[in-house]
Design a protein that fits this description.
Blueprint: H1 2-15, H2 24-36, H3 42-73, E1 79-84, E2 89-90, E3 95-101, E4 110-115, E5 125-134, H4 147-153, E6 156-162, E7 168-172, H5 176-188, H6 194-202, H7 209-218, H8 228-243, H9 254-272, H10 277-294, H11 301-315, H12 323-341, H13 349-375, E8 377-378, H14 382-410, H15 415-436, E9 442-443, H16 446-465, H17 473-484, E10 491-495, E11 503-508, E12 511-516, H18 523-538, E13 542-551, E14 557-566, E15 590-591, E16 594-598, E17 609-613, E18 616-620, H19 626-635, E19 643-645, H20 657-663, E20 667-670, H21 683-691, E21 696-698, H22 699-702, E22 705-709, E23 713-718, H23 719-722, E24 737-739
Parallel strand pairs: 4-6, 12-13, 18-19, 19-20, 20-21
Antiparallel strand pairs: 1-3, 1-5, 2-3, 3-4, 5-6, 5-7, 8-9, 10-11, 10-22, 11-12, 13-14, 15-16, 16-17, 17-18, 22-23, 23-24
Length: about 750
């Protein structure tokens, strides 16, 4: 069985790098062939058999997902029966909800829906709705959310919106969990730590932007969501409390009964968190543990870990796409390795304290390396934050919270306990608010991340065979973490994947210029959800200049220029509230070592900028109309540029053949949303570019597009082509470099 489990894990890692999903029946045929030779070469065949079982299950579930997706997309407005899974999120313009399909070939798969002006919605309701659906397709930006992988992990087949009715409410189910959530909300309403208590009690994180940022900067995000740590704490506390009853109550098979009660308490806590994926994984692990202990079976920690990971991957192969899955199982592997190599030898208080500090430092350093591998950066505050608050919350705050929750559900007045819980969580709340104000996220380059991954693997191997290898860990980690945060000296231009708008970042080290062609009313939507993670991931600490379009009258907009905007001091959503009188004409002619030419024609309400970086020139026409385009062509003799970012998201009304011939670009870029209603970039524009043999890259296909400038060539990279897994739908390959032509 050992070889079988290793085969499953190896195949799961291999599946991330495969270009396509292999057909199910070919894998099934290979499994039958392997069974013929299992008696002759048992260990190698078991390894290959485990790998084949994973690949077959993965292929089968992938095909079922594709069939369900096609079925839903072919409905074209036909009514669908769905169940609302969780409490809908209400926004000013629409309501966001997650629903499960109840009938048809797609039964059991989930949908992400928007509903404008809906009736009263609640979790558990069954509806008959008319839907307009499309494939799940998210924005692909540095540090951003991978919507496609999330869809596979959570069984989400499509996204879309609720079309015009009629819509019929079929069933209004009573939700026990929602009743518990209402009781908790009522009990914690008077306290400042209410968001933390709600997150740790029922798994719903209604955090402000400041709390989210504080959780990221402090490295305590894992502590603020009900996960394996919390489920394990409940299980452990029940076992510990049950141990005190052994000398008082004598029951046959008391140990087995205690294990079952602890498991029931842990499952109940996981149910309160709606059996979110981390809690589900922890529940499966505890079930395996209880079965083994009830049968008095002793399994080595290494074999238990291999069996657990293999079982989880066989149950849900798409969990291999989740960074949190690998982070969780590797954290458990690190804990098991540390407990094996460095056991507690002394039992007096000083020895226990010394062992605890050493164990925690080792665990935090290795987890920091894992964080770099999976998230492309780390927080230097993580070690101190975990050292202070993981023990405090595990031993004090969370037990108080669970007792308060238990009494509230029973109908007992536990207000004094909620008050104690609030006092216990106030230091954590203060720490998160303080961390949110500090620029404490250090991104790493891709090459550095690969180096860190190899070094982390080497350290784990050394820890297994050489006990004193831990002495190398601290200086090596400091060296890697310090060197990985060094910024590149070259200029980078990032055209972000931001839908029907144009967000351009011109970056040099920790400073950048932001060009945003969207109207002011749309700035709030994008800045918090997409721009902040990008700036954090790219290591940008200050936007020296921010150019964005601001509303002046109902029909006229002007360009506003902001200067020296530090991204760590205030929310990016306040762009539209800035009272800056300067326009793009006040841009400096020279910014650091590059040149900025404002080419806006006389009398035009637009902002056309050409950027010269060494031998390269980039033209940003922005948001223009045909009159402005004609004036732009006639008033400027020299319009040549190597890179052109199409105007108006690639509209055919502009980007005329005359302008393209005057610019003579070697590369054209465009920002447009996936399956947008404007059909941008327009077919006519694509034909004009093809006539001039100019390649076109669109963010809807390639995700964020980055150009790195040096004296000899341009390095062009597409984030969607680089992102794992490789078998997800990829755009066509692009040339990595462009040679200097001028």
């Amino acid at each position: 069985m050992l070889g079988f489990c290793i085969g499953v894990i190896t195949a799961s890692l291999l599946s991330l790098f495969l270009p396509i999903v292999p057909p199910f029946f070919s894998i099934f045929f290979v499994m039958l062939v392997l069974l013929v030779f299992i008696r002759r070469w048992p260990q190698p065949i078991l390894f290959l058999l485990g790998a084949s079982c994973f690949l077959a299950n993965w292929s089968w579930q992938y095909q079922q997902h594709q069939i369900s997706q096609r079925t839903l997309l072919e409905l074209a407005g036909s009514p669908v029966m769905v169940r609302i899974d969780a409490t809908p999120l209400t926004y000013p313009d629409y309501t966001q909800l997650s629903a499960t399909v109840l009938s048809g070939p797609a039964s059991g798969y989930r949908l992400s829906l928007r509903w404008q002006q809906p009736p009263t919605l609640a979790a558990g309701q069954h509806w008959r709705l008319r839907l307009q659906l499309k494939k799940v397709h998210g924005f692909t930006n540095p540090g951003g959310f991978n919507a496609e992988s999330f869809a596979y992990i959570n069984g989400m087949a499509a996204s879309g919106q609720v079309a015009r009715g009629p819509h019929i409410l079929l069933l209004q189910q009573y939700s026990v969990r929602q009743h518990v959530v209402d009781l908790v909300e009522q009990a914690i309403m008077p306290y400042r730590t209410a968001p933390l208590m709600k997150a740790l009690a029922v798994g719903e994180r209604d955090f402000s932007d400041g709390l989210w940022q504080g959780a990221q900067h402090s490295g305590l995000g894992h502590l603020l969501a009900i996960s394996g740590l919390h489920i394990g704490l409940v299980f452990g506390w029940v076992i510990w409390l049950g141990g005190w009853s052994r000398g008082i109550i004598a029951i046959r098979r008391q140990q087995q009964l205690l294990l079952v009660l602890a498991l029931a308490a842990a499952l109940l806590y996981a149910w309160l968190a709606s059996f979110a994926i981390p809690t589900l994984r922890a529940s499966i692990a505890l079930v395996i543990l209880v079965i083994c202990r009830s049968q008095l079976a002793t399994i080595p920690l290494s074999r238990f870990w291999l069996m657990l990971v293999a079982l989880l991957l066989l149950l849900q192969p798409f969990w291999a796409l989740s960074a949190s899955f690998w982070l969780s199982v590797l954290a458990v592997a690190i804990i098991f390795t540390a407990l094996w190599r460095y056991p507690l030898t002394g039992y007096h208080r000083l020895a226990r304290l010394k062992w605890f500090l050493s164990f925690h430092i080792l665990l935090s350093l290795l987890m920091t390396l894992l964080g770099i591998i999976f998230f492309g950066g780390f927080s230097p505050l993580m070690l101190l934050s975990n050292l202070l608050f993981v023990p405090w919350c595990s031993l004090v705050a969370i037990p108080l919270l669970l007792v308060s929750l238990f009494l509230t559900v029973l109908g007992v007045d536990g207000s004094w306990l909620w008050q104690l819980t609030d006092m216990a969580l106030k230091p954590l709340l203060w720490w998160l608010e303080y961390s949110a104000e500090l620029p404490l996220w250090w991104p790493v380059a891709r090459i550095s991340g690969i180096t860190v991954a190899l070094m982390a693997l080497l350290l784990l191997v050394l820890l297994v065979f050489i006990r004193k290898a831990v002495l190398l860990l601290l200086p090596l980690c400091l060296l890697l973490l310090t060197g990985s945060s060094v910024q590149s000296k070259n200029w980078h231009l990032h055209l972000l994947d931001s839908g029907q708008r144009q967000l351009v970042l011109l970056q040099h080290g920790r400073h950048a210029l932001l060009y945003d062609q969207a109207p002011a009313t749309a700035t709030r939507d994008i800045a918090e959800n997409q721009l902040q993670p990008v700036l954090r991931q790219l290591g940008i600490r200050q936007l020296d200049f921010v150019l964005f379009r601001q509303q002046r009258t109902e029909r006229s907009r002007h360009w506003t220029l902001l200067k020296n905007y530090r991204t760590d001091q205030q929310s990016l959503a306040r762009f539209s509230q800035q009272t800056a009188a300067d326009s793009c004409r006040q841009l400096p002619a020279v910014y650091q070592d590059i040149r900025l030419d404002v080419l806006t024609p006389d009398g035009a309400d637009s902002c056309i900028v050409r950027i010269t970086i060494g031998p390269w020139r980039v033209l940003l026409p922005g948001k223009i109309d045909p009159v402005t385009e004609r004036a732009f062509i006639s008033q400027h003799a020299d319009l040549e540029a190597d890179v052109l970012i199409l105007a108006n998201n690639g509209s055919a009304a502009v980007n005329s053949l005359a302008m393209l011939q005057r610019v003579q670009p070697a590369l054209a870029l465009n920002a447009a949303a996936f399956m947008n209603g404007y059909q941008h970039p327009a077919t006519a524009v694509q034909q004009r570019l093809a006539l001039l043999r100019v390649p076109l890259l669109n963010t809807a296909d390639y995700g964020a597009i980055t150009i790195e400038f040096n004296d000899k060539n341009l390095r062009i990279s597409s984030l969607r082509r680089q992102r794992l897994p490789f078998w997800l739908e990829k755009p066509a390959a692009i040339a990595e470099t462009l040679a200097t032509t001028r």
